[in-house]
Specification:
There is one protein chain. The chain is an alpha/beta fold. 29% of the residues lie in helices and 27% in strands. The chain folds into two domains: 5-45 and 213-247; 55-195, no CATH class. It is built from three helices and eleven strands. The strands form two sheets. Strands 2, 3, 4, 5, 6, 7, 8, 9 and 10 form a nine-stranded mixed β-sheet that branches. The chain has a two-stranded antiparallel sheet with strand order 1-11.
């Protein structure tokens, strides 16, 4: 009886189109992974700047807010413009909708800085804005807090400048400082002041860097790189065909 031996050989059948498509997908996934990785490093730097902002506040003096580091602690001296306040819409806290209250502070040198006095919930009726008036006889104040930019909208939220014909306080959604300056008819400093939690005349203040934390970005980076490995594995699995035969 003749002897036989089983042997296995393979055949590669990938088309140029599938090869190019897989290569593009892998490059895209790898690039997205590195983008998320760099975002994580940026968020770590932001967190470090926020932590550095816990230092003792120094007087702003004649310095411009735009020339100072983000989250730097400063103390201002001036008078609140109680008659011209803004309510930032679409600001939630613990899942509850509400507003952030922006009040202009007029400095002795003629400049104006927007002070974010914190978060306040929607009124019970949801039709009338909350009462945010200050004591008219308040006089000069010296609030302290962190310098920061105005909030920016997420993907599903939009920008809405204050209505110039609306009564005060005026509602606005993710404005830029130029919008608020136009409504006040006076220039504003480039950054707002996030009023410290231990300062008077404020509402709920739980300031922290916005957006995703660095850990989430790292997780997304690993996920994109895993997709790249998966694409290569599927490409090889779909295009390598085994053939089995018998040899005498």
């Amino acid at each position: 009886m003749p002897l036989t031996q089983t042997y296995t050989q393979g055949r590669w059948s990938a088309s140029w189109f599938m090869t190019l498509l897989t290569l593009l997908a892998v490059l895209c996934f790898v690039r997205l992974g590195f983008w998320q990785w760099h975002r994580a490093q940026e968020k770590r730097a932001i967190a470090a700047s926020f932590e550095a902002g816990n230092a003792t506040a120094t007087d702003l003096g004649a310095r411009s807010t735009g020339s100072l580091p983000r989250y730097m602690q400063v103390r201002l001296h001036g008078r609140y413009d109680d008659a011209h306040q803004f309510l930032l819409e679409n600001m939630s806290q613990g899942g509850q909708p509400g507003y952030q209250v922006l009040t202009p502070l007029l400095l002795a040198d003629g400049r104006a800085i927007m002070v974010n006095r914190g978060w306040i919930p929607l009124s019970a009726s949801r039709r009338e804005p909350p009462k945010v008036a200050l004591d008219e006889a308040l006089g000069e104040v010296s609030p302290a807090g962190r310098l920061d930019a105005l909030p920016v909208p997420g993907i599903s939220l939009g920008h809405l400048a204050p209505d110039e014909h609306a009564p005060w306080p005026r509602l606005t959604s993710f404005p830029v400082m130029a919008d608020l300056s136009a409504a006040l008819k006076r220039p504003l400093e480039a950054r707002q002041l996030l009023l410290n939690a231990d300062e008077p005349l404020g509402y709920l203040r739980d300031w922290h860097p916005t957006g995703l934390g660095p850990e989430r970005h790292i997780a997304y980076a690993v996920q994109w790189w895993a997709f790249a490995v998966l694409a290569v594995g599927l490409y090889a699995r779909l295009n390598w065909h085994r053939a089995t035969g018998m040899a005498r």
